[in-house]
Amino acid sequence: MSARWTPESHVRTTGNGMAIEIKLHGVLATSLAATFENGALCIRGQHKDFGKFESRHEIPANLNPVEVTITLKNDVLRIEVPTGKRKKEITLGPIPIQIKFSGIFPKPNKTAIKHWCSTPRSMMIYCNGCGKHFDIVATKEARDYPCPHCGKVQVFDLERLINQAVDQSSKMLRRKRGSR
Question: pTM surpassing 0.90?
Answer without folding.
Answer: no
